[in-house]
């Protein structure tokens, strides 16, 4: 898949996995996120290998991340979206969502899904809505799977 890179001032968004800082991603997801507490670094590495990843960089330092898991034909799952606290309030999450939603391999999908506890307002700006028929959805959810 072709690498996408966009720059705004001192910030860059790239899908080049070789630029990702696994330590930054692992620290945020395992220590700061509410959805991946205690996730092992090996799980992060495997998820990166099997997803389309978007890194946000400030002068080559990773400051944000998101991944998309997709068949690139009918559906996509957006997950692990974050911007480090010191870099929030600069429009980076909006730019990240615009970049993801306009990615050429992610056009004309029948369904996008994501889970969020606190960013509904952000996602709604890009067409996301609550699930229309939640009674049709099922899941296996193990929130404590990474706890030691």
Automatic annotation (TrEMBL):
Annotated N-acetyltransferase domain residues: 11-148
Name recorded for this polypeptide: GNAT family N-acetyltransferase
Domain of life from the UniProt record: Bacteria
Alphabetized SUPFAM superfamilies for the sequence: Acyl-CoA N-acyltransferases (Nat)
GO molecular function, one term: acyltransferase activity, transferring groups other than amino-acyl groups
Listed Pfam families: Acetyltransf_7
InterPro entries: Acetyltransferase_Butenolide (IPR053144), Acyl_CoA_acyltransferase (IPR016181), GNAT_dom (IPR000182)
Keyword Transferase in annotation: yes
Keywords for this protein: Transferase
CDD domains assigned: NAT_SF (cd04301)
Residues passing through the membrane, by range: none
